[in-house]
Amino acid sequence: MARTKWRRSAEWTAHLRQALGAPGGEDRIGVRVVAVNDQGRERLQYIDPGDYRCPRLAAELADEWVEYVDATGLSASASRDYVRAVDLVCAAMDAASEDSAALSLESVDLMPLLARWERTLPAAYGEGSRQPGMAASGVRTLIVRRDDHPERRVDESLARFARGMTLTGWGECTERDEFSRADKQALVKAAWSSVHALEKRLAEGPAGGHRQSGGQQGEGEDGQADPLPGQRRVPVGCGGG
Known about the structure:
Elements: H1 2-6, H2 10-19, E1 32-38, E2 41-47, H3 55-72, H4 76-96, H5 110-120, H6 131-147, H7 156-162, H8 181-204, H9 206-210
Antiparallel strand pairs: 1-2
Helix pairs in contact: 3-4, 3-6, 4-6, 6-7
């Protein structure tokens, strides 16, 4: 409780600012901090390796996160996803390993622990959630980034694992009706074409209606009534058109 209270204090914010831009390295267990843009406001985000019983692993992942944010200019929300991913995996490694203090990205026994974590991660979320996939992918991204630097040691089997497909699904965002997006676009186009044609005939009056070949006013070529605006409801899925 006292630790939580301190982290809400002005002293904690000052501590984070002092740590901002500090060099990383596996021998440094201090807090890692980035400053991100949150809709025009600066936000400080941090990962504290001292929060975990696997501080070396947390420090290595946190260093990659700091460099990645600085290099890409990630938004506050995107950066926060990586913070959450590191927190999830380090908490899981604390619980899964009998010697979590010895864990690092060089550890030969880390890969099977990560594989088990990825497979069991969806159980903590609702069906179709994208959070497990985002967390697993975030951790893999940081591992691959570290492996891309020859001077930073990563276990070979772990590096190969990180470059493969995640064992956690990405959730779903699929159309929930029988219409494809192309079908919906065609329906909308056809509906508005009929609306414009009807408006034109109404503007011409009865005489214009009698000029229609084989049909009465308000009917199409096949004798069916033209749809009025709003008569045909186009289903909308969860994705954009």
